[in-house]
Automatic annotation (TrEMBL):
Residues 148-245 form the Mandelate racemase/muconate lactonizing enzyme C-terminal domain. It holds the Pfam family MR_MLE_N. Its cofactor is Mn(2+). Transmembrane segments: none annotated. The active site is at K169, E327. One of its GO terms (molecular function) is muconate cycloisomerase activity. Pathway: Aromatic compound metabolism. It comes from Pseudomonas reinekei. The keyword Metal-binding applies. The lineage of its organism: Bacteria, Pseudomonadati, Pseudomonadota, Gammaproteobacteria, Pseudomonadales. This is Muconate cycloisomerase. The keyword Isomerase applies. CDD domains: MLE (cd03318). It comes from the Bacteria. Belongs to the mandelate racemase/muconate lactonizing enzyme family.
Length: 373
């Protein structure tokens, strides 16, 4: 077999409406911008990847536009001409020429994996060592900002067997108001659902001490990123005193962050995101650190569309244990699809294709309709 080289890399911004405004502490999403990557190889094979973030620049230090520019100007030129099947050489070159930029790197690594899977006729999960399951439990994020509406949304998803894990977005409102909101949702759903919260770093330590106490006493199962990622000592203290487990999300911006959080004892659960680690292979390094440290795992999202969601899913399928399930619901938050094979959600789970690559292809007409000009 002659060696396939990376011939060209195209990045495409796609703006898609959401099914309802999605209110996070720092930003309300009513339109999500996907960053789609199309990597063409000299053997005619095309790999797809996605480098999507949320909330412009309000969530992380890469925006859709900076991701596109950094790939177009810096990362793609460094990859052109390289062996398309050598993930190690390609990703090590990117790490040499670019600090951080894990979102951009994640989409490129995903595209290389998709292309190689198609080339070999195997699923990306196979390239990652093999899947140990075919589907993943998927939770939903309640973020309408209204208690009655959140409860109605959760009841509906329980009825139609789509979700039974609900993560409530809080942090923007006064503490007592947010706590009342979450406790009311938990009381309405009772034992039929797992209710969790994501504070997106919006509490200070004093608020978090009270917040974690009330939430733990009221049956909330998991508390995600209650305080700033910068306050490591505070995270360690909260992790020691909170009844409900503390999950690190924003605290993990790299595999190295995962190691130091584990070493410090700053969280008992890690949110795994391909975008925060630099790709499906990179996120598995963070998972291995967690496994070695006895830290439990959750398959998290940056609200990617089908491509990024499946890239994450193929990695999560290979893990020994995913104790907290996943939140790979991104495609369900969007009103439009730009792929030919919409991800399959059934009986609380995402069913992941076992076809070559990621198992997804672009619908060129719909892409043309929604791509940014
Ligand atoms: C986050 O902080 O978890 C993931 C799901 C969601 O609703 O927001 C994102 C970001
Ligand atoms: Mg989070």
């Amino acid at each position: 077999m002659t060696q396939a080289k990376i011939e060209s890399i195209e990045t495409i911004l796609v703006d898609l409406p959401t099914v309802r405004p999605h209110k996070l502490a720092m930003h309300t999403i009513s339109q999500q911008t996907l960053v789609i990557i199309r990597l063409r190889c000299s053997d005619g094979i095309e790999g797809l990847g996605e480098s999507t973030t949320v909330g412009g620049l309000s969530y992380a230090n890469e925006s859709p536009e900076s991701i596109k520019t950094n790939i177009d100007v810096h990362l793609a030129p460094a990859l052109i001409g390289m062996d398309a099947s050598n993930f190690n050489a390609a990703m090590q070159r990117l790490d040499r020429i670019a600090k951080g930029n894990t979102f951009a790197k994640s989409g490129l690594e995903s595209a290389l994996l998709d292309a190689q899977g198609k080339r070999q006729g195997v699923a990306v999960s196979q390239l990652l060592g093999g899947r140990v399951r075919d589907s993943l439990e998927v939770g939903w994020v309640l973020a309408s900002g209204n208690t009655a509406r959140d409860i109605a949304e959760a009841e509906h998803f329980l009825d139609v067997r789509r979700h039974r894990i609900f993560k409530v977005k809080i942090g923007a409102n006064p503490l007592e108001q947010d706590l009342k909101h979450v406790v009311a949702i938990k009381q309405a759903l009772g034992d039929r659902a797992s209710v969790r919260v994501d504070v997106n770093q919006y509490w200070d330590e004093a608020q978090a001490i009270r917040g974690c106490q009330v939430l733990g006493d009221n049956g909330i199962d998991l508390i995600e990123q209650p305080i700033s990622r910068i306050n490591r000592a505070g995270q360690v203290r909260l992790n020691q005193r909170s009844l409900a487990p503390i999950m690190a999300d924003e605290s993990i911006e790299s595999v190295e962050d995962a190691f130091s959080l584990a070493a410090d004892g700053a969280a008992s659960v890690f949110a795994l995101k391909i975008a925060k680690n630099g790709g499906p292979r990179a996120v598995l390094r963070t998972a291995q650190i967690a496994e070695s440290a006895g830290i439990a795992l959750y398959g998290a999202t940056m609200l990617e569309g089908a491509i990024g969601t499946l890239a994450s899913a193929h990695a999560f399928l290979t893990l020994k244990k995913l104790a907290w399930g996943t939140e790979l619901f991104g495609p369900l938050l969007l009103t439009e699809e730009i792929v030919n094979e919409a991800p399959v959600y059934r009986d609380f789970e995402l069913h992941v294709p076992n076809t070559p690559g990621l198992g997804v292809s672009l619908d060129e007409e719909r892409l043309a309709l929604f791509r940014r000009r």
